[in-house]
């Protein structure tokens, strides 16, 4: 079965950290661009971070730069999103998406290019 599964979400206090995982089954992530998106209640879905298939180049939304780090472990067929210094405004459902039409985030970040695979999402709540 081909799917992406996110995990690692939860409730954390402001200033805390979480690491989200996006694990693929049924296909190999090596040649896929992976983007993390999030959607807060009443807001549109937004891109958080992207990692290219080739060279591992990364992109980040302005409001997470310096706090979030995306990485990939091809041996584990998993992409991670390390989130530090979390803020209440980071509260959202986080989704990972994968696509292999292109190998670089350049063709995906902020372009509306469709992704072939989506995960089911994991809830992140930042609250005291």
Task: Describe what you observe in this structure.
The protein is mainly β and 128 residues long. The protein has strands at 3-7, 10-12, 18-25, 33-39, 46-51, 58-60, 68-73, 78-83, 92-99, 117-118, 122-126. The strands form 2 sheets. Strands 2, 4, 5, 6, 9, 10 and 11 form a 7-stranded mixed β-sheet that branches. The chain is globular. The protein starts with a strand and ends with a strand.
Return residue spans where pLDDT drops below 50 for at least 5 consecutive residues: none
The percentage of residues in β strands lies in: over 45%
Task: Calculate the terminal CA-CA distance, rounded to whole Å.
Answer: 39 Å
How many DSSP E strands? 11
Radius of gyration: 14 Å
In percent, how helical is the residue content?
A: under 10%
Describe the global form.
Answer: globular
Describe the sheet with the most strands.
Answer: 7 strands, mixed
Order of helices and strands: EEEEEEEEEEE
Residue-averaged pLDDT, rounded?
95
Structural class based on helices, strands and sheet pairing = mainly beta
Tally the helices. 0
Helix and strand layout, with pairings?
Layout lengths: L2 E5 L2 E3 L5 E8 L7 E7 L6 E6 L6 E3 L7 E6 L4 E6 L8 E8 L17 E2 L3 E5 L2
Parallel strand pairs: 2-11
Antiparallel strand pairs: 1-3, 3-8, 4-5, 4-9, 5-6, 7-8, 9-10, 9-11
Features:
0% helix, globular, 128 residues, 4-stranded antiparallel sheet, 7-stranded mixed sheet, single chain, mainly beta
